[in-house]
Amino acid sequence: MRICKYCEEGFIPDHGNSQYCSDSCAQLAKLERQTGSYPVGLDAKKAIMTNYDLFKRLLGENHQGEFDHMALTSMGFDRFGFYRISEVSQIRYHVEEYYFTFTDQTLITICKT
Ligand SMILES: [Zn+2]
Protein backbone atom coordinates (compact mmCIF):
# COMPACT_ATOMS: atom_id res chain seq x y z
CA MET A 1 0.00 0.00 0.00
CA ARG A 2 1.30 3.40 -0.96
CA ILE A 3 -0.08 6.94 -0.69
CA CYS A 4 -0.67 8.72 -4.00
CA LYS A 5 1.41 11.89 -4.15
CA TYR A 6 -1.46 13.73 -5.75
CA CYS A 7 -4.80 12.75 -4.25
CA GLU A 8 -3.34 11.27 -1.06
CA GLU A 9 -5.40 8.11 -1.35
CA GLY A 10 -3.88 4.74 -0.59
CA PHE A 11 -3.29 2.49 -3.59
CA ILE A 12 -1.52 -0.72 -4.60
CA PRO A 13 1.26 0.18 -7.07
CA ASP A 14 1.21 -1.92 -10.24
CA HIS A 15 4.91 -1.39 -10.65
CA GLY A 16 7.64 -0.71 -8.16
CA ASN A 17 8.14 3.03 -8.47
CA SER A 18 4.74 4.53 -9.31
CA GLN A 19 3.99 7.54 -7.16
CA TYR A 20 0.46 8.13 -8.35
CA CYS A 21 -2.61 5.93 -8.10
CA SER A 22 -3.80 6.63 -11.65
CA ASP A 23 -2.91 8.20 -14.97
CA SER A 24 -5.16 11.15 -14.20
CA CYS A 25 -3.34 11.86 -10.92
CA ALA A 26 0.00 11.69 -12.72
CA GLN A 27 -1.24 14.00 -15.48
CA LEU A 28 -2.76 16.51 -13.11
CA ALA A 29 0.38 16.55 -10.97
CA LYS A 30 2.40 17.22 -14.12
CA LEU A 31 0.07 20.05 -15.07
CA GLU A 32 0.51 21.59 -11.64
CA ARG A 33 4.27 21.39 -11.95
CA GLN A 34 4.12 23.05 -15.37
CA THR A 35 1.80 25.85 -14.34
CA GLY A 36 3.30 26.38 -10.91
CA SER A 37 1.64 25.44 -7.68
CA TYR A 38 -2.08 25.71 -7.96
CA PRO A 39 -4.19 26.76 -4.99
CA VAL A 40 -6.60 23.87 -5.24
CA GLY A 41 -7.76 22.16 -2.07
CA LEU A 42 -8.01 18.41 -1.87
CA ASP A 43 -11.78 18.37 -2.34
CA ALA A 44 -11.45 20.48 -5.47
CA LYS A 45 -8.69 18.20 -6.72
CA LYS A 46 -10.96 15.21 -6.30
CA ALA A 47 -13.80 17.01 -8.09
CA ILE A 48 -11.45 17.91 -10.95
CA MET A 49 -10.20 14.36 -11.24
CA THR A 50 -13.72 12.96 -11.21
CA ASN A 51 -14.78 15.39 -13.93
CA TYR A 52 -11.66 14.69 -15.93
CA ASP A 53 -12.21 10.93 -15.91
CA LEU A 54 -15.89 11.38 -16.66
CA PHE A 55 -15.28 13.77 -19.60
CA LYS A 56 -12.66 11.46 -21.03
CA ARG A 57 -15.02 8.51 -20.81
CA LEU A 58 -18.07 10.37 -22.15
CA LEU A 59 -16.39 12.10 -25.07
CA GLY A 60 -14.11 9.27 -26.14
CA GLU A 61 -12.91 10.26 -29.60
CA ASN A 62 -15.45 13.06 -29.95
CA HIS A 63 -14.55 16.69 -29.50
CA GLN A 64 -17.85 17.88 -28.17
CA GLY A 65 -20.95 16.53 -26.55
CA GLU A 66 -24.08 17.81 -24.92
CA PHE A 67 -25.24 16.14 -21.73
CA ASP A 68 -28.07 16.41 -19.29
CA HIS A 69 -26.92 18.10 -16.09
CA MET A 70 -28.84 15.71 -13.82
CA ALA A 71 -27.52 12.66 -15.65
CA LEU A 72 -23.97 14.00 -15.37
CA THR A 73 -24.41 14.69 -11.67
CA SER A 74 -25.63 11.15 -11.13
CA MET A 75 -22.38 9.98 -12.77
CA GLY A 76 -20.33 12.04 -10.33
CA PHE A 77 -19.98 15.33 -12.18
CA ASP A 78 -19.16 18.24 -9.87
CA ARG A 79 -19.75 21.73 -11.28
CA PHE A 80 -17.04 23.12 -9.01
CA GLY A 81 -14.40 20.76 -10.33
CA PHE A 82 -12.45 23.02 -12.71
CA TYR A 83 -9.07 24.69 -12.85
CA ARG A 84 -9.87 28.05 -14.30
CA ILE A 85 -12.55 30.00 -16.10
CA SER A 86 -12.43 31.80 -19.42
CA GLU A 87 -15.15 33.57 -21.30
CA VAL A 88 -15.63 33.45 -25.03
CA SER A 89 -19.32 33.57 -25.86
CA GLN A 90 -20.13 31.70 -22.67
CA ILE A 91 -18.21 31.05 -19.50
CA ARG A 92 -15.94 28.05 -19.96
CA TYR A 93 -14.86 25.98 -16.99
CA HIS A 94 -11.59 24.29 -17.77
CA VAL A 95 -10.55 20.82 -16.72
CA GLU A 96 -7.17 20.26 -18.31
CA GLU A 97 -7.78 19.75 -22.08
CA TYR A 98 -11.56 19.83 -21.59
CA TYR A 99 -13.94 22.58 -20.72
CA PHE A 100 -17.62 22.66 -19.98
CA THR A 101 -20.26 25.32 -20.47
CA PHE A 102 -23.82 25.57 -19.29
CA THR A 103 -25.93 25.52 -22.45
CA ASP A 104 -29.10 26.23 -20.49
CA GLN A 105 -30.60 25.23 -17.15
CA THR A 106 -30.47 21.53 -17.89
CA LEU A 107 -27.76 20.96 -20.50
CA ILE A 108 -24.01 21.02 -20.22
CA THR A 109 -21.73 21.04 -23.22
CA ILE A 110 -18.35 19.39 -22.81
CA CYS A 111 -15.63 20.20 -25.31
CA LYS A 112 -12.12 19.01 -25.90
CA THR A 113 -9.71 21.81 -26.76
ZN1 LIG B 1 -4.21 9.63 -6.87
First-residue to last-residue Cα separation? 36 Å
* Gyration radius over CA: 15 Å
Shape: elongated
User: Which percent range describes the beta-strand content?
Assistant: 25-35%
> On the 0-100 scale, what is the average pLDDT?
87
Low-confidence parts, pLDDT < 50 over ≥5 residues?
A: none
* Backbone structural class: alpha+beta
Number of domains: 2
Bound molecules: zinc ion
Helix content: 25-40%
> Would you list the SSEs in sequence order as H and E?
EEHHEHEEEE
Largest sheet: 5 strands, antiparallel
Query: How is the largest sheet built, in terms of strand order?
Result: 3-7-6-5-4
Number of helices: 3
Overall strand count:
7
Oligomer: single chain
Structural description of this entry:
This protein is α+β, with helices and mostly antiparallel strands and 113 residues long. It has two domains: 1-38, no CATH class; 42-113, no CATH class. Helices cover 33% and strands 26% of the residues. The chain has a five-stranded antiparallel sheet with strand order 3-7-6-5-4. The relative contact order is 0.15. Bound molecules: zinc ion (ZN). Zinc ion binds next to loops.
